[in-house]
Amino acid sequence: MKCDVVVVGAGPGGSMFSKTAAEAGLKVVMLEKRQEIGDPVRCAEGVGKRALSKMVELDSRWIASEVKGARIIAPDGTSIVMSEDKGGAEVGYVLERKVFDRALAENAARAGAKVLVKTRATGLLRKDGVPCGVTAMRFGEALRIDAPLVIGADGVESKVGRWAGIDTALKLKDIETCAQFLVQDSSIDDSYCEFYLGNSIAPAGYVWSFPKGKKLANVGLGVLGSRSKPGEALRLLRQFVDKRYPNGRAVEMVVGGDPCSGPIESTVADGVMLVGDAARQTDPLTGGGILNAMEAGIIAGEVAAKAISAGDVSASGLKEYEDRWRATIGRHISRSYEFKEFFVKLSDDDLNRLLGSLKGEDLTKTDLRGMLRVLFRLNPKLLWELRHLVI
Ligand SMILES: Cc1cc2nc3c(=O)[nH]c(=O)nc-3n(C[C@H](O)[C@H](O)[C@H](O)COP(=O)(O)OP(=O)(O)OC[C@H]3O[C@@H](n4cnc5c(N)ncnc54)[C@H](O)[C@@H]3O)c2cc1C
Asked: pTM score, two decimals?
């Protein structure tokens, strides 16, 4: 098989890349190792409304629920509420990703991309040492796909980057190990995404409860790899669910890793670009990565079209991708990384003090940055280290 660009992975990053590149006239082949795109889901499925609607036409088939805002709960039970439009990139809609991911892949196919499911990329083809396509296995048969450009959109466990010599290794302190149940319980608040903080419930992480309507919610947690041990995320999740939803029933379960490294050194090599989790573009503080993967996919698609038509897919020919994503997503996740590094050091007393200090403050019109400013005003000593991010 021959094409202009072969995309490994049909998650939000791969599909947005494929749609953009196909619309620009490139011959695109997108490979997905699973037989059903989007399944199994490894995600809490929360996304901000505005950013999502800028990138894809909204469709009620993949919106499980719409929330009013976020509730953040301190270890001592003190809580604050933020409105949906200010609550960050994971608050607004809770998606049905099994349908959403497939819809994005269908959009890519409609734009002209060829989608091959149950097809696993197994390595890079090379000519004179330079990548020029991939080898793959499809229904037990070996396949080769020749293409001057390869996109690694193969998620957190990405191999494409490693094959191309890009350092995507994650330190234990830069990955959250996560476990999640889809819980059915009559006490679930269908109107708010909830975030529970505390070192005993989720060391250097948090517990989330994202409602999917009809008293169902994705209830999960992430624990920083360096503070975890095998089976720990699941053990802590069971403990939390037993206490918070004693009558709840878990009807689905997922485990997975979420990168929280901030921007990595390089996301391009000769003939290769990485997008989404493969490029470690997830928000290190919240773990949200759907919107960043989609945005990076669009940028990479636009750059790929220019690079292919200019006949220059060398790392320097693809540099515009690096420059553009670092100026937008990269700036945001660098800041988030600093917050994360600070956040993971906080004790439960610190968390109680910070959230407690917001009692009586009107946060209805305050976004996360504004909230930090208020927190800094009220707790200058505790937050002194973050002063350069506040001013
Ligand atoms: C527990 C958990 C909860 C999360 N909650 C949220 C949330 O609420 N909001 C949010 O924004 N983000 C969340 N995230 C992060 C979010 O899921 C990812 O950032 C997002 O899916 C990244 O999209 P992607 O396209 O880069 O990769 P993925 O969605 O991971 O897609 C990669 C695709 O590549 C395929 N693939 C891998 N290797 C190969 C191969 N060799 N050949 C062919 N195909 C291959 C995979 O099967 C997969 O379909 C969460 C993550 C976890 C683990």
From this structure: 0.96
